[in-house]
Design brief:
This protein has about 140 residues and is an alpha+beta fold. It has two helices and eight strands.
């Protein structure tokens, strides 16, 4: 693994507002921000201004933030996951296989539009893991 796990916060349409709030509270900066409309990902027009992904940072502190995909609802308790950046296709495959053995797959391991291999898995204890391997 490259870095410690990063908290990923999910919102029901308030991601931009939350991002600005955290920017003020923690006095950091938004280092990435992309809406569903800007992404090469098929979404309904009402999602165009919602955040598909953003990163907030202050020093070593990093948060990832997104709005839920249209039609999916976020509930308190399921609105945070941990992102793990893996170092190889073999490592992401092994981690994915181990987590899904006793957990449940929320998003199959797959190639993505952002140039990574990615999966989302809930472990048997209810913790949601975003597995990401950015291809070189």
């Amino acid at each position: 693994m490259k870095n410690p796990a990063t908290p990923y916060l999910m919102f029901n349409g308030q991601a931009k507002e939350a991002l600005e709030f955290y920017k003020e509270v923690f006095e950091g900066e938004v280092i990435e921000s992309q809406t569903y409309g800007e992404a090469d990902y098929p979404t309904p027009p009402e999602a165009d201004e919602l955040l598909i992904h953003a990163k907030f940072q202050k020093g070593e502190f990093l948060l990832m933030i997104s709005d839920a995909f249209p039609g999916q609802s976020i509930e308190i308790g399921t609105n945070i996951s941990l992102v793990v950046e893996l170092e190889s296709e073999q490592e992401i495959q092994a981690t994915y296989d181990a987590l899904k053995e006793k957990g449940s797959v929320l998003m199959e391991l797959q190639d993505t539009f952002w140039g990574a291999k990615y999966a989302k898995v809930k472990d048997p204890y209810g913790i949601i893991w975003d597995l990401n391997y950015t291809k070189a």
